[in-house]
């Protein structure tokens, strides 16, 4: 058989194929459930009422069952309530019109029942099992409610008798493969009886559910015991993926996948439950370690969340633990170093420390959390060189925080409370060389017997209040601090027993009206700090000059083929920061000591004249600068640094040997 190739036929075939594809894709491709406020409940393009195989619930479009016989007689369900023939509620679509419970099962303990393929929306509770057992909830859609699925062993009566409490339990239920999305509060909420056993929520299974875009994903509260939570997907839940609160213990939690949220728990709860690293937070394992020492990089590989109880001599470094709930928690830990991590954009805290000592926290980014660091009962620790900015409440919140050092941190633009809030029995700490700038209320707040702290060399700038006290916070020492542009006041409510200068020097106040006639850097008259308590800084700092910069190298009008080193001297007693620029300030490079011009910045420069400007700012905000001009020129072969020139010379030598050997071989051949 002979086939003829015809390019025009091919074009027709292609055109026909395109037309067929357009016709095919003109039909609806998805029948996902959605809600349209104008058209009501729809699936695909049809109103629910036109879909004959689904049922619209009667009884005000909600189902409430406390008597199964009556439910069967009314046609709401089928079955006989045995293990092999459970009561079945299926294929209902229920619009709660903004209130009530879509499907409610109450006080059902001795029969088996199944709720399947139901869609419940616009309710206070989608499906609620109250003091009920032996139920199976499978393949339901409980989305767009206030709460999705609710299991409850609680009875809301005051002072219940022991006989009543003994009847309050919710056991042996299975909740699997349900879709529970976009609920205002909880995806799945489980509540044991607050009075304790025997009113427990126990031996229930939650498996394979999709729980996305709720406020909380799965929430266990009060005596939820021996439950199994496995292989659920919890994505983009606003605050917490999974929350265990109150005395919840011996629950098995495995294989769950959380994104943009993580685990959160009451104090100690994780240690009395079975939670392992098969749970993922932002595609990284949830690492829970108890009673372990000498943990390191291999123990936190690609971490999603870290929780340590009674661990010692451990390093947590270089992790990206952002966009979750609470990335690092330490309970009763000692000698832990947490350094160079990104702990930002988490719902709760960047870090939570409780009952710890000798914790070192260095060079972390702890930004845009609810609170940066939450601390309770921590001693002999260091928090240094961290970025702690734009947190919703405080940058650092602490209580019972003693004999610690907080230094060289950026604590800026934290909202609603303070940059650092020392809230209760925080004593004998050193807070030095930090930057408290643009915090919504206080830069530093001291309350509830926070005493005997040293606060020195800090900058308090553009906060609403620089430092705030309650009357119990006494015997704190402030010196060499700089108070600039704080909106309401630099200091409020300081008890008179706090001191604001040493025997040699006090603090800088931008509203000081005195003089320094002898130019010794100390004001000639005291500064009145707070009119309400008549406290004074008797040795206020006066600093009227900007930093003075001397450039020793590079020299002017020199040619450079590679990035030059620099050597400058800054004459400034209260230096805050230094930087340089090669492009008029479009790109600035900070530095703390002399060094070499940034290689990438150098590479981006054109050949010819280069203007290098150095800047320095002091703690009062005054800026000084100096500049130098030199030339950038192309490299010549003699100027190629390092091993490249010897390598080139060796290559030339080897090539010459090859040429000589080849020539000799030709001469010998001719002689033969």
Describe the overall structure.
With 672 residues, the chain is mainly β. 9% of the residues lie in helices and 39% in strands. The strands form 10 sheets. The protein has a 20-stranded mixed beta sheet that branches. Strand 28 and strand 29 (284-290) form a beta hairpin.
Summary, kept brief:
By secondary structure, this protein is mainly β.
Helix content class: under 10%
- The gyration radius over C-alpha positions equals 35 Å
Shape: globular
Instruction: Give the CA-CA distance, first to last residue.
Output: 67 Å
Contiguous runs where pLDDT drops below 50 for at least 5 residues: 1-60, 667-672
Keywords:
672 residues; mainly beta; 5 helices; 9% helix; 39% strand; globular; disordered N terminus; disordered C terminus
Topology:
Elements: H1 7-25, E1 33-36, E2 40-43, E3 46-47, E4 55-56, E5 63-65, H2 68-73, E6 87-90, E7 92-95, E8 101-106, E9 113-116, E10 119-121, E11 125-130, E12 135-138, E13 147-152, H3 162-166, E14 170-171, E15 174-176, E16 186-191, E17 201-202, E18 205-207, E19 216-221, E20 224-225, E21 228-230, E22 233-235, E23 240-245, E24 252-254, E25 257-259, E26 263-265, E27 274-275, E28 280-281, E29 284-290, E30 305-309, E31 312-317, E32 328-331, E33 334-339, E34 349-362, E35 371-379, E36 382-384, E37 394-402, E38 405-407, E39 410-412, E40 418-423, E41 430-432, E42 435-437, E43 442-447, E44 454-456, E45 459-461, E46 465-469, E47 477-479, E48 482-484, E49 489-492, E50 508-509, E51 527-530, E52 535-537, E53 548-553, E54 559-560, E55 567-571, E56 575-581, E57 588-591, H4 599-603, E58 608-618, E59 623-632, H5 644-671
Parallel strand pairs: 4-7, 5-8, 6-9, 7-10, 8-11, 9-12, 11-13, 12-15, 13-16, 14-17, 15-18, 16-19, 17-20, 18-21, 19-23, 21-24, 22-25, 23-26, 24-27, 25-28, 29-30, 30-32, 31-33, 32-34, 33-34, 34-35, 34-36, 35-37, 36-38, 37-40, 38-41, 39-42, 40-43, 41-44, 42-45, 43-46, 44-47, 45-48, 46-49, 48-50, ...
Antiparallel strand pairs: 1-2, 2-3, 28-29, 51-52, 53-55, 56-57, 56-58, 58-59
């Amino acid at each position: 058989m002979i086939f003829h190739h015809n390019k025009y036929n091919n074009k027709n075939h292609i055109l026909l194929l395109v037309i067929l594809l357009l016709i095919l894709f003109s039909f609806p491709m998805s029948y996902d459930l959605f809600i349209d406020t104008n058209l009501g409940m729809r699936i695909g393009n049809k109103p629910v009422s036109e879909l004959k195989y689904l049922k619209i619930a009667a009884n005000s479009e909600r189902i409430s069952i406390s008597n199964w016989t009556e439910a069967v007689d009314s046609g709401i369900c089928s079955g006989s309530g045995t293990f092999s023939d459970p009561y079945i509620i299926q294929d209902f679509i229920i619009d709660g019109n903004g209130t009530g419970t879509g499907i409610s099962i109450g006080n059902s303990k001795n029969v088996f029942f199944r709720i399947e393929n139901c869609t419940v929306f616009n309710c206070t509770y989608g499906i609620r099992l109250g003091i009920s057992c032996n139920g199976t909830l499978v393949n339901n859609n409980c989305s767009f409610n206030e709460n999705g699925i609710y299991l409850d062993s609680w009875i809301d009566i005051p002072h219940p008798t022991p006989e009543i409490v003994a009847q309050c339990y919710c056991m042996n239920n299975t909740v699997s493969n349900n879709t529970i999305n976009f609920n205002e509060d909880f995806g799945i909420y489980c509540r044991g009886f607050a009075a304790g056993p025997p009113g427990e929520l126990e031996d229930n299974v939650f498996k394979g559910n999709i729980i996305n875009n709720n406020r909380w994903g799965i929430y266990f509260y009060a005596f939820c015991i021996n439950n199994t939570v496995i292989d659920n997907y919890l994505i983009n839940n606003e605050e917490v993926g999974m929350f265990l609160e109150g005395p919840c213990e011996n629950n098995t939690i495995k294989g769950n996948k959380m994104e943009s949220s993580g685990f959160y728990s009451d104090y100690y709860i994780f240690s009395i439950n079975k939670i392992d690293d098969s749970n993922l937070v932002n595609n990284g394992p949830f690492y829970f370690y108890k009673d372990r020492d000498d943990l390191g990089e291999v123990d936190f590989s690609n971490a999603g969340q870290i929780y340590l109880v009674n661990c010692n001599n451990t390093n947590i470094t270089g992790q990206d633990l952002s966009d979750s709930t609470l990335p690092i928690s330490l309970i009763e830990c000692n000698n832990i170093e947490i350094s160079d991590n990104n702990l930002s954009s988490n719902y709760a805290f960047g870090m939570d420390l409780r009952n710890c000592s000798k914790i070192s926290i260095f060079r972390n980014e702890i930004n845009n959390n609810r609170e940066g660091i939450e601390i309770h009962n921590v001693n002999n620790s260091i928090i240094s060189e961290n970025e702690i900015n734009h947190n919703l409440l405080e940058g650092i919140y602490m209580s019972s925080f003693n004999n610690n050092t907080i230094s060289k941190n950026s604590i800026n633009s934290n909202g609603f409370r303070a940059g650092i809030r020392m809230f209760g029995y925080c004593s004998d700490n050193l807070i030095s060389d930090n930057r408290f700038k643009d915090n919504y209320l206080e830069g530093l707040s001291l309350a509830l017997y926070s005493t005997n702290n040293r606060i020195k060399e800090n900058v308090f700038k553009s906060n609403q209040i620089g430092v705030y006290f309650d009357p119990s916070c006494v015997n704190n020492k402030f010196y060499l601090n700089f108070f600039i542009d704080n909106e309401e006041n630099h200091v409020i409510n300081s008890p008179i027993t706090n001191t604001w200068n040493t025997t040699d020097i006090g603090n800088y106040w931008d509203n000081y009206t005195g003089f320094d006639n002898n130019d010794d850097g100390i004001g000639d008259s005291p500064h009145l700090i707070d009119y309400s308590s008549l406290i004074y800084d008797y040795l206020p700092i006066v600093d009227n000059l900007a930093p003075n910069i001397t450039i020793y190298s590079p020299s002017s009008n020199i040619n450079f083929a590679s990035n030059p080193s620099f050597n400058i001297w800054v004459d400034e007693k209260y230096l805050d920061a230094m930087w340089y620029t090669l492009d008029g300030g479009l790109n600035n490079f900070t530095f703390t000591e002399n060094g070499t011009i940034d290689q990438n910045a150098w590479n981006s420069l054109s050949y010819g004249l280069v203007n290098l400007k150095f800047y320095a700012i002091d703690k009062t905000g005054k800026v000084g600068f100096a500049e130098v001009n030199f030339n950038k020129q192309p490299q010549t072969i003699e100027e190629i640094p390092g091993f490249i020139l010897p390598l080139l010379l060796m290559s030339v030598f080897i090539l010459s040997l090859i040429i000589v050997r080849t020539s000799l071989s030709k001469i010998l051949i001719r002689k033969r």
